[in-house]
Amino acid sequence: MSLLARLAPHLPYVRRYARALTGDQATGDNYVRVALEALAAGERQLSPDMTPRVALYHVFHAIWSTTGAQLEPIETDETDAGRRLMRISPRSRQAFLLTALEGFTPSEAAQILGADAHAVEGLIAEAQSDIDAELATDVLIIEDEAIISADIESLVRELGHRVTGTATTHDEAVDAVARHRPGLVLADIQLADGSSGIDAVKDILKRFDVPVIFITAFPERLLTGERPEPTFLITKPFQPETVKAAISQALFFHPARQKEAA
Fold first, then answer.
1. Are 262 and 84 in contact (CB under 8 A)?
2. Cα separation of 219 and 235, whole Å?
């Protein structure tokens, strides 16, 4: 089996992870591209002791650790994202995202990072504590299934956020935003009356610059590589920790939130 065939099923997800880690689609995609080029040129190899997915992330981190992980605050601009990112160490952020967002076990994350599982668990706890301490905001949930909406609302409140609106259709979502500006939007893409959560989010973003997390059973509709893709995308059925991780990271990396906290 060719290298491309082995890695193809995992590329949309390592791209998603890279975007979450860097907070930017173009930057994340660039690091993934460099990792793939290193593999194709024989400069890096997939470890035979790891599954292809774990090995791909391991190579990505080998590239990232020599460049992107070296984040320094920019003294000439106190509101820059670098200052905010420095509040959480790159290692803690990586461990947190690998397990909570990408679904790796602590043991797999340890392989990727070249650490032991116990150390990874400590890094995860450190990152979660640091992130949750400063991110309380108002949340709009766009979801047409009542049970799922209630589950998401519970998770949101556990993190200390306030749910100020829920919607099951495009029109309800737009109306909710008109009544109260959210600091975060959690959206499904297929809504109750056949309307689109994607369209609802587009209309919301025309009015407000807010972070958005899509939670959907149809991730392939967004991970096409043919248009700008959401940085934060969760597949149903979801794990609670995955949603919590995405909320923390979406708020942490969004430019508007960075300016507010600076």
1. yes
2. 6
Using DSSP bridges, classify how beta strands 162-167 and 138-142 pair: parallel, antiparallel or unpaired.
Answer: parallel
Q: Is the pTM of this model over 0.85?
A: no
* Contact between residue 150 and residue 166 where contact means Cβ atoms under 8 Å apart: no
Q: Which two tokens stand for residue 84?
A: 């905010």
Strand, helix or coil at 184? strand
Q: How many residues does the chain have?
A: 262
Q: How far apart are CA 163 and CA 149, in angstroms?
A: 11
Return the pLDDT at 214.
94
What is the per-residue pLDDT across 121-170, written as a single tens digit (0 to 9) for each?
A: 899 888 877 776 677 899 999 999 999 999 999 999 988 899 999 999 99
Residues 6+ apart with CB under 8 A from 118: none
Q: Report the alpha-carbon angle 166-171-173, nearest 5.
A: 30
Distance CA 245, CA 101 (A): 6
Tokens of 131: 């992130």
CA-to-CA dists, residue 34 to 8, 27, 63, 66, 116, angstroms? 16, 11, 8, 12, 26
109 contacts 99 by C-beta, under 8 angstroms: yes
